[in-house]
Amino acid sequence: MEVPDQLLPAATFENLALPLFDQLYNFAHWLTQDRAEAEDLVQETYAKALRGFATFQPGTNFRAWIFRILRNSFLTTRAGLKSTVGFDEELHTEAATTHDASAEDILVEQSNREIVQQVLEELPVPFREILLLYEVEQMSYQETAETLGVPIGTVMSRLSRARKALRAELVKRFKEGRHGM
Amino acid sequence: MACDSAPEQLDAYLDGELSASEAANVRDHLKACPACAADALTHLQLRRKVSEAGVRYQPAPEFRSKILSQYSARPRRRNLQWAILIVPALVVLLVILSANLFVARERTREQRALGEVADLHVAALASASPVDVVSTDQHTVKPWFEGKIPFTFNLPDVQGSDFTLRGGRVTYLAQSPGAQLIYQLRKHNLSVFIFQDRSEPFGKTALEPMEFETFHMESWSGHGLRYFVVGDVGANDIQALSKLFRDAG
Q: Of B247, B236, B238, which is closest to residue B154 (Cα–Cα)?
């Protein structure tokens, strides 16, 4: 009976954590913008998660828990620290408050995958990460709040600002592209 | 955002995060406010774009095997004996599963594309000017598209049927320009979309008439073009309009 008892936590960790490998890697690469750094970050996340697995409460959200470990690990790296210093949500969405709503649907409709990726890549990390967690990982407001360690109200306002910033940037690119032609 | 009073409310509504009563308030507002309705549509399109674009980076195979070998609980040696028996069965199962997965993924891409077509229909009706060329005469509408889209198509004569042509507009599906014709039937609007036929994701086949969210839809391809007929009317009406187009094509 001893052997299964010892294997049990490892087996559970494996069942919970390994299926998230691709998503964790995608998220890490989006944050670090570098393959080697993304691998280090995922490696570190798995190591920390396994060590801290005893503190994970069964029945609570494992995905939010492990994404939070990854994200917090990123924030302690040099690139991570730089990414949030001096970030001001108000400032970054100021430009987005006036725009021509009527023409936007067609612009968004036409913007291709590469342009959306470029714009996402250049968004400030707090905007980029919330869009990835919410739209790509399809987390709920609650899960996103748990992952980011902020109240739901903050998730709502930041998500709204992030979308505005993304929209404004897409519109800007589209107009620049047209002038260039 | 036209109604700055509660932009986050609208976002939360579209994200499906409002309570039933809050959602009802936003829904009422959307019905009365075209600006917010247009904004809602952009919001949904943006969500789809981001969810597609965000899946971008694949882990390297070596890195995958490294993590897998580190964190998989390894089977014990004595299990190997029956593993030899079970492996062929697993391989067969895997082949079946991956075939199913492939079909499921194709179906999802198809659903996505159909969802996009339904969105285009709603988008046109929600916009301030649903049609760019306003005419009930197919001989006016058809030439209007010349030079605006990279193909030509035939429009049926709907005189004598219950359908009335309202007009047309240029639209885009996966970055390809196409024609959207709007028809009226009783109080309902129907859209007919015509795009150049790309083999993905529909192949060359006609799709079974389907119910998509609150719409009925029919789609087929012919003469290098892909047609979609969509509207919030019964399947029979969709079929009738489809037949007119098939006969004309």
A: B247
pTM: 0.58
Contact A156 B49 (CB under 8 A): no
Task: Give residue B7's identity as a one-letter amino acid code.
Answer: P
Main-chain phi, psi angles of B167, to 5 degrees:
155, -165
Residue A66 is inside which H or E element, if any? helix A62-75
Q: Could you count the other beta carbons within 10 Å of the beta carbon of residue B227?
A: 22
Model ipTM value: 0.84
CB < 8 Å & 24+ apart, contacts of A81-86: A83/A124, A83/A125, A83/A126, A84/A125, A84/A126
Structure token pair of residue B137: 């005469």
Assess if residue B185 is contained within a domain.
Answer: yes
Report the residue of B52, B56, B121 to disrupt the A interface, i.e. the one with the largest count of A CBs within 10 Å.
Answer: B56
Mean pLDDT by 10 residues, chain A (181 residues): 47 86 96 95 95 85 94 87 73 56 62 89 94 93 94 93 91 71 42
Provide the residue range defining the domain that includes B120.
107-248
In this complex, how many residue pairs, one in chain A and one in chain B, have their CB atoms less than 8 Å apart?
122
Could you give all domains of chain A from N- to C-terminal order, each with its CATH number?
1-85 (1.10.1740.10), 87-181 (1.10.10.10)
